[in-house]
Amino acid sequence: MAQITLHVNGKARMVDSDPTTPLLYVLRDDLELHGPRFGCGLSQCGACTVIIDGNTVRSCSFPVSSAKNKQITTLEGLGTVARPHVLQRAFVEEQAAQCGYCMNGMIMTAKVLLDKNPHPGDDDIKRALEGNLCRCGSHLRVMRAIKRAASERV
Amino acid sequence: METSTISRRELLKGTGALVVSFSLFGSVSRALAQAAAGGEPEATSLDSWLAIAQDGTVTVFTSKVELGTGTETALAQIVAEELDVPFSRIHMEAGDTSKSVDQAVTAASRTIERAGPQLRQAAAVARRELLRQASERLNAPADQLTVNDGVISASGASVRKVSYSELVGDKRFNVKMEASGFGWDLKISPDVPVKNVKDYKIVGTSVPRTDLPGKFTGEFTYAQDVRLPGMLHGRVVRPPVVNSKPLNVDEGSIKQIAGVVKVVQEGNFLGVVAQTEWAAIQAAKALKVTWSTPSTTLPATPDELYAYLKDTKSFNDQVVVNRGNADSAFAQASKKYEATFRWPFQLHGMLGPSCAVADVRGDSVTVWSGTQGPFRTRKALSDMLRIPEKNIRVIFREESGCYGRLSPDDAPLDAALLSRAVGKPVRVQWTRADEHGWEPKGPAQLVTVRAGVDAQGNIVAWDYMERGFPWSESAGNPLLAGRQIGMKNVSPGQSNGTAGGGEAYEFENQRIIAALIPWSQDTPTPLRTSNLRAPGDLARTFASESLLDEIAADLHVDPVQIRLRYLKNNKRVTEVLVAATQAAKWKEHVSHSAPVSGSKAMGRGVSVSGRDGTVTAAVAEVEVDKSSGEITIKRVTLAHDCGLIVNPDGLRNQIEGNIIQGVSRTLLEEVRFDAQGVKNLDWVSYPIVTFRRVPDIQIVLLNRKEMPALGGGEPSTVPVPAAIANAVYDAIGVRMREVPMTPQKVQASLRSKAPGQRA
Q: Which residue of A30, A81, A113, A146 to mutate against B (max B Cβ within 10 Å)?
């Protein structure tokens, strides 16, 4: 076990953890965050996505020790139901989910996409999200939500 | 941390702006929970169904749970409508066995159809009681009272009014209702008058789903998020191959992993419990176990599997239709058609593997789970733990979309065995390989269809035989953990359904049979079976609608016209077929006549289906690359009639998902296995549809206000495989008769020019 300081959603958080622990379990079990979700533990589905220093990271396969001194953003860091991020609001407006389990990964991946490409076309969105699995089939709504968010961003 | 006394609820109001309201539901829920402590809520008591708080909040108690399909919102709409309160005041308390009446599992697209009327009648009884009380309070006859947003007014005098909460806020109704039947068939005071559909203001509108905002921010609590004080983490160690038993467990092999609390072995059930999730994961992986050589094996190849289906004697021939004499009509027919269709084992493939938390203290058990049936899970826990059901409380927390799976029903049993062994709450999270390998799967099917046509070109014989497996995990059979500790089956399993064999059509001589082939085993097998979305109907419709298409092509008849001809008096299917083909701008033609330019060919195919009263028709437009064999679905147009529509956008959401999942199952999905076990244990080896393969979707909703509201959770996935197969034929002139329609199979079919059999 080791004392590790993480910078999560703008706050410094100290955890006592085996340094090889995937970041996902530290975020969920130690910091009680619900945004990043366990889907496969194999970097195949995207449900666990977080943003580290501006890029998407699959937290299920990313040792907590590697996250030291880096800025980690989880779904909670984007906004709340009371004060949603433009993407979160757009997802609500498009009713872009069924079970919603994969939506953490969709929104976090979309966030990084829009940060880098504020006005993506359909093909850009599909390419960015190709590695994010959704079993319910909400893909078309997710695309509409991202386009809506892109058009509403100032 | 898990708390159940205070709920916070977020909802959308108006258009575009987020409005958040907070309410305390604690007092009512607690009071009723305490009242129920001596026994379960009874269906005959109005207080079991509804409670009105002083702030006007209406709490609805139901055992129907949200599985991602939006039913919680739709049920709330039904109650708000009947009770005449704003939708925003409804709070659903769902899936807690200590607070709800058993309305049967949330499945079979029956929640709106069956639980809707149950809750509507309870609301109607409540409304009648509130009017009775208001009549006394306002000293006015009940028939001169009007209700608006939960406020009752006496006509002609605006000052004479009283609100629901003033009448019964935080108090019990103490009103008895009629109740007959059980579960799905439970009828609540059916004679109490309800609102006329033409007066509906809430039912029929696209109310935004109440669960979604929190799912987009991380404020929602899934079963995976439940944490209890002192909770430990468990992982189950499943056998690497079918029916293998742990002969020797070397606990020393995980000595070096800090935080391991216990290795739990009970019969052939094996698991580890640790203080942290990571320690549990590592321990389950590192634990050295000597496994026995399996005493049973699986069919080693798909060919062996289909041979088993073909050659094994059925234990139950379910006769769907038997009209005239199909055998003699076939024998005398001028033209004969016969084809056999294969449908593989497929995964439910929940995106989040199963998870449950159990707290077993002596003979008292509390479980948090995403089960489809909290009461069914309570019974399974009772059977396995030998603890009375009254001592067990199952609390539903949503997991990822399930599409009919039972593995969330397995996880509570795993968690309970581990919790009992350590005397503390234990959370069990299945791994991806657990889920792919050991979830109960959608069963394989083999369908043979024969048809005969007379000299005038009429279809005079239709002989349809499906051979499939029942659900081994239903009908009260033990689940995985139960089997591992030695429990025995009580039933050969439950039927995988019978719809889709061509019964929508009327042929002079017609026989449709769904035969059940024995499959259920006492030993744990990774090919155990359960209901997978629209159970059995995709394969059956794939077969019946493909063969009909084949006949149309051979007779040089347009595929839509041949269907209309034999639908005869089937008005609703006829109308969805016409609606779908009009929306798709269908041009009458004989398949395969599609223009071919270069290596890519376009084609269109059609299919109809019916399931439990809901009817659908689909037109698929595909492009087939003849050199690579790749099928691309460009567009699916689907018309849908499920009677009265409760929430149009919610229904569209379901239909989009059904089409996309249908495309996935048709093109990509097959559980692969050998004699020892399942081979595709991750998403790379069991691919599902991704963004690049998602087609454009066009939906036509037929709203039948004169009809009851029927199910929309699964019927629209049914016509998709056949529509695709027929479109592929239209494009390239070969029949695909086996799912998944992989590029290899398309290429092989093109090479042989024979029907699309396995390469």
A: A81
Q: Is there a contact between B680 and B436 (Cβ–Cβ < 8 Å)?
A: yes
As a whole number of angstroms, the distance between CA A28 and CA A35 comes to: 8
- Specify the pLDDT at position B758: 36
> What's the confidence (pLDDT) of residue A154?
61
Distances in whole angstroms, Cα of residue B737 to Cα of each of B497, B549, B552? 21, 12, 17
**Each residue of A93-147: pLDDT tens digit?**
999 999 999 999 999 999 999 999 999 999 999 999 999 999 999 999 999 999 9
Phi, psi of A15 (to 5 degrees): -125, 155
User: How many beta-carbon pairs below 8 A join chains A and B?
Assistant: 193
Contact across the interface for A140 and B694, Cβ inside 8 Å: yes
Q: Which domains does chain B have, with CATH numbers?
A: 10-212 (3.30.365.10), 225-294+349-438 (3.30.365.10), 558-752 (3.30.365.10)
A140 with B658: Cβ contact below 8 A: no
Give me the count of residues in chain A.
Answer: 154
What Å distances lie between residue B566 and B180, B335, B486, B571, CA to CA?
A: 40, 18, 52, 11
Domains and CATH numbers, chain A: 2-76 (3.10.20.30), 79-152 (1.10.150.120)
> How far apart are alpha carbons B4 and B231 in whole angstroms?
17
In chain A, the N- to C-terminal Cα span, in Å, equals: 45
Torsion of CA B150, B152, B156, B157, to 10 degrees: -100
pLDDT of residue B576 exceeding 80: yes
Give the CA distances from residue B695 to residues A61, B15, B124, B251, B278, in Å, rounded to whole numbers and listed in that order: 32, 29, 43, 52, 40
| CA–CA dist B746, B627 (Å, integer) | 10
Q: CB–CB of B217 and A81 under 8 A?
A: yes
Which residues in B lie closer than 8 A to residue A20 (C-beta atoms)? 278
Q: What is the pTM of this model?
A: 0.95
Q: How close is the nearest chain A Cα to the Cα of B502, in Å?
A: 28
Helix, strand or coil for residue B388? coil
- Interface check for A89 against chain B (CB to CB < 8 A): the answer is yes
**Cross-chain Cβ contact A138/B689 below 8 Å:** no
- Measured CA to CA in angstroms, residue B61 lies from B37, B98, B144 at distances of 15, 10, 30
Cβ(B103)–Cβ(B115) below 8 Å: yes
- pLDDT of the residue at B24: 34
Give me the count of residues in chain B: 759
Q: What is the ipTM of this complex?
A: 0.99
DSSP E strands, B592-721: 596-597, 600-611, 614-625, 631-641, 696-702
Is there a contact between B404 and B531 (Cβ–Cβ < 8 Å)?
yes
Q: Measure the CA–CA gap between B339 and B643, rounded to whole angstroms.
A: 34
Task: Note whether B217 contacts A101, CB cutoff 8 Å.
Answer: no
Other residues' Cβ atoms within 10 Å of the Cβ of residue B391? 16
Closest CA to B638 of B675, B597, B600, B605: B605
